[in-house]
Amino acid sequence: MDIYFNDQVKRGTDYVMNQIQVGVLVLKKTGQEELELSFFNDAFCRLLEYDRSELETILRRNLWTIIYPADREKVLDAIRRMDLDETQDWSFRLVDKQKNASWFLGHYKESAYNKEDYIFISVTNIQEYVSANNQLGLSENKWSDIVNSIPIGLLIFAMDEEKKTSIIAVNQPLVEFSNNVGRELDGKHRNWSQEELMLLFGQSIYCFCEDEDIHLVTKMLEESKTQGISNCTFRLRGSTEERPIWIFSSCCSKPGMGKQRNYYVSFQNVTEDEIRKREISESHEILLNLSYYDTLTGTRSRNYYNQFIEECRQNKLFQVGVAFADVNGLKHINDTLGHLYGDNMICKFANLLKTEFGPERVFRISGDEFVVVVSDIGKDKFFQRMKDVTEQAKQMDNIASIGYIWKDTVSDIKRRVSQAEQLMYLEKQKFYEEERTLESKHRTKMMGSLLSDLENGCYHMFLQPKSNIENQKVVGAEALVRKISASGEVIAPYEFVPQLESEKLIYYIDFFMLEEVCKFLQSLCEKGNTNFKISVNMSRVTMAENNYIQKIVGICDKYQFQRAQLEFEITESSRTMDNMRMEEDIKRLKELGFGVSLDDVGTEYSSFPMLTLEGIDTVKLDRSFIVKMKNEKVDKLISYVIEMSHDMGMCVIAEGVETDRERVKLMEKNCDMYQGYLLSKPIPAEEFKQRYL
Predict the structure, then answer these.
(1) Cα–Cα nearest to 641, from 596, 615, 676, 610
(2) How far, rounded to the nearest angstrom, does the alpha carbon of residue 341 sit from its chain's CA centroid?
(3) Strands 153-159 and 400-410
């Protein structure tokens, strides 16, 4: 030790230090954050189960090796903030020769000798004190002092062979931890006491843990028996997907009295670190999927395909079937029925290929083109499977053209794919020839299917409530069509409405929905509710029919309700009709006592000229307009639209309101009503009646 003045003093000091049964470590400060070993006693060696020479070699090489990695910065920070002749207590973990980490209570003091600064540290194994209390019995005050001096939340309990538990101690840091994480979870103030927490843990040692994560804690307790120290990360009970609280627990266990085993469990809030770690993991997974997997279909991507081609150049494939497929008429479908419908077709065909060959053998190499490569398959088996796929594709309205070949050995897969592509083009020519003859039959077949579905109750009326924006009272609803498949799956309109519009069959749905609304309004009037309003959509295709208003009147006259309760919604895309004709139709609907609203305002530049049409009662701001309120110019424009609509005597309703912040902001602009997921998604009519009426 370099603070001795002579050898005699050194021998005397060594003797005295080594009689002390508490571990002693002396460090010399050589810089602001630089320390070097000066002295350690025999008790310090025994605590870490090292020989003296072995431990000295380790400490000379790197002082921090014996400190548990997670605690190193904490120890260094404690030393940084020390002043001369100042004394501090701090807890940290040390790693022994067997690589086991144990908690120690450190007593720090900085002193100066010969113009040099030294840090004197005495260390006591806290876990040994806890064990001593169980076996030898410490005084209650001494026991409490030791447990409460540990700087992190600590639960100590005993468990017998029959899994019966008894709580030994809950320290004060765990009480503070419990109150803090509880308040962080839901914002509510908590004031747990040590006694209350002991009772709570006495009922269940899993009281902090979500039921789905109990197995993680159980595994940690079991592993501590063989590993000495085990840990896990679990969710705090009451956590949600939107607000999870992640707890890191570390556990060590030792034999107790009789057949009991004592467990020492620490708790730390690691929510921020866990969320960051999971976000990084999810981001990595997303990037990997984006690179190698097609996000729309779940097949392998073009990037994966290119890599696969390179691999095939180095490794031959044997008994290989190769297919090239192209979705038929995708551009026409996208142009006439919309890209959502086109994407749905792509997914249907991709699912057919994946079902037959597996997603790992199917590549989507462009928007409507797929490649299938199957190795180690016999020629007859491959050809039969391709015939099955081709037959199923034809049954799906001839969804795709397919070419395929089979080879014993393939080294240049790209060349074989090109051959399959040429065969596909021959099939594509056949498709175009057949399409001309089948086109006229298609509409008749589709109409028959639609009428059959209507008759069999496949289409249903869903209602989405409309509410007063100030008091949030439900005052009306919008009727929306949904199709329910034989399996009970609810099919959204975008999957069937575009095609029905393209085939000029949508008016069957429009008048079906009108009749359903009339039935619903009559049931309300029979119970004395004559103020509730329901709006129903009318397609521009239906409005182009010459006698559609007469059809409306004929349906409405079959039922008893106030016509003012029924409102017809027209979209701004309806401008494709003759403006004079539209204005006359709106005027006629008003004369008949119905309401009229202009839907989807904000989606196209033509909205404002349409606002001047005589007879419009309500203006509906589209969701795409609402989400842009953060833009200062859009925010002002919304204010102007609301003010202008009010000046012209029209009511304003905001669609697609999903947050209360949006609702309050619109309320400040004097918007009248709102609808959207903040209030409710569209729900079946009977459920709507029970919930709101």
Answers:
(1) 610
(2) 26
(3) unpaired
Check if the beta carbon of residue 214 is closer than 8 Å to that of residue 236.
Answer: no
For helices 379-395 and 339-357, the axis angle rounded to 10 degrees is: 150
The one-character DSSP state at 296 is T
* H or E segment to which residue 84 belongs: none
Reduce the DSSP state of residue 220 to 3 states and report it.
helix
Which DSSP letter does residue 150 get? S
- Let me know the angle formed at the C-alpha of 287 by 284 and 291, rounded to the nearest 5 degrees: 140
**Radius of gyration over alpha carbons of the chain, in Å?**
38
Q: How far apart are CA 122 and CA 22, in angstroms?
A: 6
Question: How far, in Å, CA of 238 to CA of 190, rounded?
Answer: 15
Beta bridge partners of 209: 236
401, burial (CB in 10 Å: exposed 0-12, middle 13-18, buried 19+): buried
- Say whether 360 sits in a helix, a strand or coil: helix
Matching residue, tokens 């005589």:
614
User: Which pLDDT band, with edges at 50, 70 and 90, does 2 fall under?
Assistant: very low
Crossing angle for the helix pair 126-135 and 140-149, to the nearest 10 degrees: 150
**Residue 29 phi/psi, 5° resolution?**
-85, 120
Reduced to 3 states (helix: H, G, I; strand: E, B; else coil), residue 620 is: strand
d(CA 86, CA 110): 6
- Using an 8 Å Cβ cutoff, are 261 and 246 in contact? no
pLDDT at 13 over 70: no
**Cα 545 versus chain centre, distance:** 46
Q: Tell me: the pLDDT tens digits for 64-115?
A: 889 988 888 888 887 777 776 667 777 788 999 988 888 788 888 888 777 7
Question: How far apart are alpha carbons 127 and 169 in whole angstroms?
Answer: 13
Give, as one character, the DSSP assignment of residue 31. Answer: S
- 91-95, 440-444, 527-531: segment of lowest average pLDDT: 440-444
Token pair recorded at residue 133: 């209390």
CA dist 94 and 72 (Å) reads: 10
Number of Cβ within a 10 Å radius of residue 270: 16
Q: List the structure tokens of 424.
A: 């596909």
For the residues 248-262, what does the mean pLDDT come to? Answer: 85
* Separation of CA 626 from chain center: 24
Q: Which of 17-21, 120-124, 398-402, 466-470 has the lowest mean pLDDT?
A: 17-21
What are the residues facing 465 on neighbouring strands? 477
Residue where the block lists tokens 């081609």: 309
d(CA 391, CA 442): 18
pLDDT, tens only, 149-166: 677 889 999 888 888 888
Residues 6+ apart with CB under 8 A from 371: 305, 322, 323, 324, 325, 362, 363, 365, 417, 420
- In the chain the first and final C-alpha atoms are separated, in Å, by 87
Is there a contact between 117 and 89 (Cβ–Cβ < 8 Å)? no
Over residues 263-268, the mean pLDDT reads: 91
Burial label for 62, CB within 10 Å (0-12, 13-18, 19+), is exposed
CB-based contacts of 23, cutoff 8 Å, min separation 6? 40, 41, 43, 44, 46, 47, 104, 122, 123, 124
Distance of CA 235 to the CA centre of its chain: 16
Contact 252, 229 (CB under 8 A): yes
- CB-CB contact of 357 with 385 (8 Å): yes
Question: Is there a contact between 518 and 511 (Cβ–Cβ < 8 Å)?
Answer: no
